[in-house]
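Working notes for the structural subgroup meeting. M.R. asked for a predicted model of this chain before we commit to crystallization trials. I am recording the input and output together here so anyone reviewing the notebook later can reproduce the run.

Input as submitted:
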Amino acid sequence: MRMLAQPSAETMASFEKVWQTVEQRHWDPAFLAKLPGGRSWREVHDEYLQLIKQAPSDMEGRALIARMLSLLGQSHYAVLTGEPADDLTPVQGGVGATGIDPMFTEGCMLVRAVAANSPAARAGIRPGWEIVSIDGFDVRQATARIRERPGQLKQPSSLLRMLVLGRLSGPPGVAARITFAGAHNQLIRRSIVRERPSGNLSRFGFLPPTLVEFTASRPRPDIGYVRFNLFLDPPGLMAKFEEAIRSCLRCRGLVIDLRGNPGGLAILAASMTGFLIDTPDTYLGTLYQREVQLKLIVNPRLEVFSGPVAILVDGSSVSTSEIMAGGLQDLKRARIFGERTAGAALPSMVERLPNGDLFQYAVANYVSAGGQTLEGRGVTPDVVVPTPRAALLRGQDPVLEAALHWLYESRP
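Returned structure, recorded in token form:
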């Protein structure tokens, strides 16, 4: 009888490291004593230790570690590996991009917007087109599988967006072969050569360098608009945000677009809020660790924008995006437009495991300034505005339009 291979010593050590880290760093020991389903974290260890010992390979062992973490039922617990266990694991293809901004709505992945002068714009890609496949990756099939997978977050938008963005990205100069469904659901195939967009590469811990993009514009002559894809690159991001605010101090209103923003450094949300609030002793919320409570204190700047602020969110607004939106909503400093956020608002860290994988784990629970726990709940907009495909096909942005209407109505 042929003996099955077994997980390596490095994988076994990684299992113990993951379990011990959760045991030592989770902010609520009482939660670990009785997980959803009734088991304790100690009982989970003993059960999964036996399963991993019997696993036929390192890959199976990695999958079991990921399954063990899913028993926590909380966000920001993940093992990031260069060898994904399946095709529903997000990948980072590279810094080359197509210029397509995807969003999940009406049960499918659509093109929400196309960056001006981007490869996608030159290829004639239009908002509202459905993204059917990317380099052979079946987006429709992945969407169906994620929505049916037990244990997923109630809003799969964020994971689906990450899957699509990871495959749209790649090395600059390498083409992405993409199939779309057009306005009349006719299949449209394009080969779009990726380019490196403008922005700064930012490194966060063990994670690969990530491109941080920032846009500032005026949708109306007297309305400011800012959008950025991550809360990373503190010097660059803060300098650009400050410049946008200072150039708009006399504006009628300000729009901060956090749709699709997966978060980053929570302290950046508090720092940016200092340009919007002039009241001392204000904070966006509190991070509750096992033995320490950290308030996200807002330090007002010398020049503060005092006009009305609209924040745009959707199901792919995650983590620090939720902290900023939820905190400003509680402080009555911003009105939130769009759709409910992901409900994944736990601050986290990333460490390298003995087998070379990266382990992301939550280190605190976030509670907003008004006492709201956002994990599993998300931020509910003050004005709920869906984004139907028909509107995108007409070149409209209902969420932005609703925010602009409010900004004109809220100030004479």
